[in-house]
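INFO worker-7 received task bundle
INFO bundle size: 2
INFO processing item 0
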Amino acid sequence: MKDKISIGLFGFGVVAQGLVHVLKQTQGDRISIKKICVKDPDKARSLPDSMFTLDEDELLLDEDINLIVELIDDAEASYRIVKKSLQAGKQTVSANKKMLAAHLDELILLQKEHHVSLLYEPSSCGSIPIIRNLEEYYDNDLLQSITGILNGSSNYILSKMTGQGIDYAEALHQAQELGFAESNPTLDVEGIDALNKLVIITVHAFGLYVSPGNVFSFGISTISAQDIRFAKEKGRKIKLVGQVRKNQDNTLSMYVIPRMVSQEKYIYNVEDEFNGVVIKGAFYDKQFMFGKGAGGFPTSSAVLSDITALGYDYRYEYKKMKLQNRLEFSNQGIVHVYLRYAVESDFALFRFEEIRERYSSAGFNYVTGLITLENLQQIRTQLSGRNVFLAEI
């Protein structure tokens, strides 16, 4: 890339404003933002009006702009912008994990076809440089699993429910007030955000792209004080956890589910808006990465890291996708779960391989046992709107 980086910025929300602030503090005049594309012409902003435009082509077709940074919430618009940027031969940074998880296989091919680089470190774990480490340090076939708290908003909610005894609604409200959760928190609390991040991480960890729709995920929106109390009685905390693991038959298992975490686990003490990722491999056992996973400045710092990396012509090599011994995705794995339910018709959806414990009372019914990921994936859409809570033990 040229000595000077001229940025065309899409979006001016919390992360984009954080990026502007960080650039002013750290980069001098080597990196500058030339133009910012927004969708609301009337919103009051902290920069001069001349910096803004409603026309995306004003950025994408400007030959002086050599880097596009896309920081918008709309996944469809994000896909259109990133695709046009790559096709125009511009280096690109994106933080939109929903868009990336849905289109990453195509975007990898576009980078190769147009000889440009797309970086997206901020899409996965906020300030934790998980993708760069998977690309560079763990660029071998020793990885066995990656397990982590990948969503800061849901972790904040669970921390407050467990530590302060407040209910779900109040904890969610606090997360929204602090800017950790959106006004519509569905992606966070239903596990979808964590799933999208897991899909992206899996590409770099194991060289396999798996569509999010094929992976089981379950969130925390139905959690109750009873579930928190049950976990405490067992000496555990409930965390929303994403995991991808390599099986002995050369397959990969992936899922996102609340987990009752015991005290000896690294992620037990990951609280509030922080993320924590455990990388396990042959010979080096477990390594732990920890950092803020939500908030404008942590995410914008990851954006800046990608910008400066592009200044040195850095690109992802997707080394694991080039291995001859490629892995295959499978939902055949078995998990040990706790299921809390209200009515027998809800319980009947679950085909347990083995029931280990069962309790019923007027206001609290639960069962623990073994169930296949395949069964969970088959009933995934039927669980929406039901008064059930599921957690891995």
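INFO item 0 finished
INFO processing item 1
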Amino acid sequence: MAALAWVMMGLAIWHFAIFIPDRFWGGIVGSLVCAIIGAVIIGLLFSGFSIPGNGTITVMNAVEAIPGALLGLAAAYAIGVRRGNPALHL
């Protein structure tokens, strides 16, 4: 159940990516994937590489995923900038 909370928190944080220029590696879909993967990896790290079940999940399980989602977005942005993706302006 905590894995669902991590994925949902990664998805929620990803929505804030619209406020910065789209220079992500893989575009907006690449940023989504990186945010979710980062949230799950950091969530696993905080929980000792085990996924808490229904009986042990708390609000903190979702909060633990926030740094991972931000790190995932930062990594996708850094890779995109390094590869020379132009900023898309509408």
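INFO item 1 finished
INFO post-check item 1: Residues 2-13+24-82 form one domain.
INFO post-check item 1: Residues 43 and 49 are 8 Å apart (CA to CA).
INFO worker-7 idle
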